Amino acid sequence: MISYANGQFIPTADVAIPIDNDTAGSIRGYRIFSTALAANGKATFAKDHCTRIIDGAKILKIPFSLSAEDLYGLLTQTIEKNPECQAPTPTIVKIILTGGKSGARIPQMIGEGQLYITVSPITMPPSTYYKEGVHLATYPYQRDLASTKLTYYIGSLLAEDTVNKINAHFPLFTTLMSPEKCLEGDTFNIFFIKDNIIYTPKADGHILNGITRRAIIRLASPHYKVIETDIPTSDIPSFDEAFLTSSIRKVMPVVKINADIIGSYTPGPITEHLSQLLTSEIGY
Question: How many CA atoms within 13 Å lie on the side-chain side of 187?
Fold first, then answer.
C-alpha cells in the first residue's frame, strides 16, 4: 500500500515520523489526526475529515498552509494510488498532522506542521458485536480539548481496569462532577433511545462532535426526533435502546452499561434502522 509522507508518496511500511524534526509533535504532543475508511475509490465523509484537520490545526496553532480543499486533493491522490481502496471492502486511512520542530518555549513551533496520510488494511469489529450488542463500563473522565481529535488516549488506559473488572467491551466516559452525566466513549459517541426519541450528549466542547455522529443525526432526523441534551447516568436503566458510533464501528448496538440492561438486552429496531440508513449512504 502507498501512503503520503510529508511531501512524497512512499510504501506504507516505510512511513516514519523523524523525531528530531518533530519535537513539537512527538515530545510535546502537538498532533492531531482523523481516521476514515476508504472503499469503492473514495474515503467516506472525506471532506469532513479534512475540515477536522484544518480546524484542529487552528486550535493547536500548528502552522499549516494547506486549505481543506488542498488536503482533500492530497487525500484523493493517495487513495487513487492504492488499488485496495478501489475495492468494496474498506481499508483504513489516517490523516495525521504533527507539529514539526519546536521552539524555545513549549507552545512554539518552527516551520510547517508535517502531514501524513497513511493507508493500511483494517480488521473490522467482530460480527457478534452487531448481532448481540456490546457492554460498556462508565468511568469518570473528560478529555482535554475534547472537541479536537488528539493523539492522546490516557483515558483509555485509566479506564482499562474498570472495563476489565466487569468484562465490558469499552469505557463510557462520564462527567467528574455530580450529578454524573454521560459524555462519550474513548473512541466513539453514544446515543440512547426512549419512546422512539433519540438522545445524545450535547456537542458543547465536552465531547468530540464525531463525523459519524453528525451523519447519524442528519440521517435520523427525517424519521425520528433527535435531542442533544445532558444525559444523567441515572437515566440509563430507563432507555429502550442504545448504540455507539464511530468511523470504524459505524453503528454498534449497546445492550448493557455497568449492571444496567438496556431494553430487552438485544439490539433494537431503531438501532438497526439507523445502521441500514448509514450503510445505504456509504455503500458498505
Answer: 17
One domain for residues 81 and 170: no
β-pairing verdict for 197-200 and 225-228: parallel
What residues form DSSP beta bridges with 273? Answer: none
Same domain, 86 and 226: no
**Could you give the number of structural domains in the chain?**
2
User: What is the pTM assigned to this prediction?
Assistant: 0.94
Which of 187, 220, 195, 263 is closest to 33 using CA atoms?
Answer: 187
- 267: domain CATH number is 3.20.10.10
69 and 150 in a single domain? The answer is no
Q: Could you list the residue range(s) of the whole structural domain that residue 98 is in?
A: 2-120
CA dihedral 121, 47, 278, 131 (to 10 degrees): 30
Q: Which residue has the cell 438486552?
A: 265
Residue pair 201/188 in contact (Cβ under 8 Å)? The answer is no
The conformational region for residue 19 under phi > 0 = left, psi -120 to 50 = alpha, else beta, is: alpha
| Side-chain-facing half-sphere of 44: CA atoms under 13 Å | 24
Closest Cα partner for 150 from 46, 29, 58?
A: 29
pLDDT tens column, 138-161: 999 999 999 999 998 999 999 999
| 157 and 178 assigned to the same domain | yes
Grid coordinates in use for 240? 429502550
